[in-house]
Each structure stands twice: as C-alpha cells, then as structure tokens.
Amino acid sequence: MKTFAVFLIPIIIIGVLLNYKKEPEIADLLQSRLNNKIYRQFNKLTFDSVFTSQLEDLSKADVNISKLKAYYNINGTQPTLVIKFFADNSLDSLVKYLNKSTEHGINPKIFHVKEVSELIDKLKVNQFKSVDETYPLLARLEILSAHALTRYTSYLKFGLVNPKDIFLRYYIKIKREDSLFVQGILNSEVIIDTLRSVQNISSQYKALQQAYLKTESDSTKKILMVNMERLRWQLPLNSDKFIQVNIPDFRLVYLDGNDTLTTMKVCVGGRRDLDFDKKLKIYEKTGDIEDKPENLETPLLVSNIQKLYTNPVWNIPESIVQTEIYTMARRNSSYLKRKNIAVYHKTKQIKNPASIRWYKYDRKKIPFLFVQQPGSDNSLGRLKFIFPNSNSVYLHDTNFKQGFKLKNRAISHGCIRLEHPLNLAKLLVGDTLKYDEIRKELKLKPLYTKVDKSLPAKNIDDKKELLPALFKPKAETPLIITYITAWAQNDRIEYRSDVYGMDEKLWLAMKKFR
After folding, report:
1. I want to staple 59 with a disulfide (CB 3.0 to 4.6 A). Which of 66, 140, 219, 414 is the partner?
2. Whole-structure pTM over 0.85, yes or no?
3. Please, are residues 136 and 47 in contact by the beta-carbon 8 Å criterion?
4. Torsion sign over Cα 378, 381, 385, 388
C-alpha cells in the first residue's frame, strides 16, 4: 500500500501542474493588446522605475494624482488600464465623456483630457523602434487615465466640493468617496458601464442641465451651475415622505413622493454680518461682547421631527439674553413682566425680577435663566416642533404674523417660523382624535369630536391655564433644511435670491473646476 502511495503522489503533482493555467505575463498581454512584437522585450523593473518617476512628476503638478500612489503601491506599477481598455477603444470612450463634462459645468482641462487623447493616438500609430520608447508613454497614459476616470466619476457621483469645507452652518452628512473608492473604480471591468452609472438622471438635474446648455447669460449659468452641484451631493434621506424647508424660497413643503401634502410660508434666520469674518477676528482678540459679530443664519441639516408641544415655553438663548433681554430689562423694570418672562437663579424662580439690579452684572456673565411662559405674546406662538440638532433650532408658530407678508423673510434668530403650524401638526399626528386634543390644549374648538357646551369657554390669553403639552407624531418624519436657488417646477425654472450669499461662496469654491 505504501509503495502504491509513493507512485501515486508524483502522478497527482504532474496532473496539477499540467492543468494549472499560468497568468499571462505583462509582456504577453501588451504584445497581444497593442499588436506589436517589441513588447516581448518588456522589462518590468525598467518600467517600474519609469512609472514611479512619472507618478512623482505628475503628482507635483496635480495634487489629485498623488492620491493614486496608494493604489499603485498596493496593486503594482503596471499599465493595467491600458492593457484592459485600449484594444476595445474604451479609453476613447473615456475621452468622449471627459470632453462632454462641459454639460455639467466642468472644464475638461482638469482631467488632462488633451494629453490623454494625444497619448492614445501615439499608441495607435504604433511606430516604436524599441520597447524603451513606450515606457514613458505607457506610464503617463496609465496614470492620467486613472486620474481622469477616478476624478470624473467622483465629481459626478459626489460633487466637486465638500460643502462642509466652505459653509459654517452645513451639518448634513452627505456621502463622500471612501478609502475603497479609487480601487473600486480602477478595478472596473467595463469602463463604459462605470461612466454611465455616475450620470445624474434625476428630473431636476436634467432640467437644470438643459437650461444651462440653452442659456447665453453668464449670470444665469452661474446660478444653474451651483444648483447642479448641490444636486450632486448625496443627501442622507431614506424616505420619499419628508418635510423640506428651502431657505431662499422661504417656504416649507411636506412631500410624499410626487404629492405635496401641505406647503406654507416660513421665516428663517437673518443673514450674518457682511464682514462677519473680519469682526470675528477682532472679537477673538478683544473678547468684548460689543465686538461679537451676529450670525443668525438658519443651519442646513437633516433630522427627524420627534415631538411637538402645544403652549411651549421658550428658554431664551444666552446670545439673545446678552444682546436683547439684558438691555431691555435694564432699561425698563416692567419689561420682563409685560413679556411674561420668568427669571431663575440656580433653578429657583425670582418672584420679583424688577428688583434685580442689572447694573451689577456683566452682560457676558449673567447668572440667570430666562423663560418666556406660554401665552399670546410668547415668541414661539402656540406650537413648537422638536427635532434633534446641535444648534437648538426648531420649527414653531409665532406671535408676529406680519412677518409672512414680507418678501425677504430672513428675520428670525435662526429658528423657522411657520405660517400654518396647525396644518403641519394635523398631518404629523395623523389621527383626528389626537388632533382634536391638540386643538383642545390650544383652547380651540375640536373639529372631529363633540363639545360639551355646558363647560365654560376658555381664552387663549388666560395665561394661568396655559400649560405645555407633549404630543408625538404618528411616525418620526424626516426634515431637511436646505438651500436651493434654482429648481424645475411646472415646466420652467424657478429662481430665488441668494439670501445668505451661499451661491457666491460655492461659486468661488468651484472656480478651479470651471
């Protein structure tokens, strides 16, 4: 038996070796794909040296090319894209897509498309006297093609710029390319499929793109370009049913797919000081509250509405206390009482705030908490909608209804005032009985349940009877606060003013791509 095993083992080994398919050498692949016998003399070590040198030189001229170093360090310095995509003209398809990047408001020059095209043509002529002549060309074509392919797909899929890098109050966690993105793109088997997959096919994008290609106005092109860029940012919305507040439009829209459930005017935060950055530097040096610049802009974010309160109290933010409440209370001792504002010191309410000697306290270190009680004069009105965020902003009713008559409604301290908060509350709770409970808390007649007429009517101004009450939506509803100055609607493009100057800032950030 042992003798049989001794004879059997060599036979098995020989069989395995005979059936083993050896991976083709680079020289064989190049000779086959580029149709030239000179590649039989291809020397991997010599090519590696040329490739490394070309990669270093190109990286100095374009920082994005340096991002390819990690990929080639892991996968080896070989002309992979040339081998895979030259013979079937896929590299030519890449060039065509790059040249058409103008349709997206992107300058093809940033992809070095002219040089890529020239290198492809030289390779097609195929009149090399020795393999050494091909090394710089192959290396350069490989690197520039890899750069063009990865940058083009990234820009169309994720956008040209990261909004978090340029906007102070942008808190939306948009999707960006990860550490595996470059490898995934360069390992593609069909380049044309990759290029097609990153084309934005949304109706909004296509409408803006069509308008961009048609218009001859530079100012209109600018607006369309920045809004096309915004549509390239991948937002973390996982539902077709959501509430959108568009700051430049001063409007809230509650959407369910293509259906609009409700829409209403809103007031948003006021624009920050025009010389905000300059003032901020001065304030950082002096620490003087008088030098502190004002930034009331409503932050851009994605969250979920989790609660709503009737008859809310308003815990007045420290910034408003310092800039408004302190001054008014010091000027008029009856101001706090008239505005129904309670004052607390270390959780204990001060019974007579008029007795406080305000001049003793530094405005920067006021040791009191100010809480406006429910009532008709409460700045939050009669309803408040809560969603998690780091800026302590929310949607709410308002006691200043005249604000909705204004054309420019950037007038709040940062929160969003709603024209018809009850309409939104009704949709969110999704239950007629619960909606009537909300109305009851607001001292309004119920719409769906019978009223006991023997009970006395209550007045909204009866502050003693107004207490906050918590209600929860039927389901947490996604909310996005966004900034869009051009969009398609009813077969036309709607344009809005750049109320926060964010178009201009984005336009400057996109300069190197234009």
Report:
1. 66
2. yes
3. no
4. negative
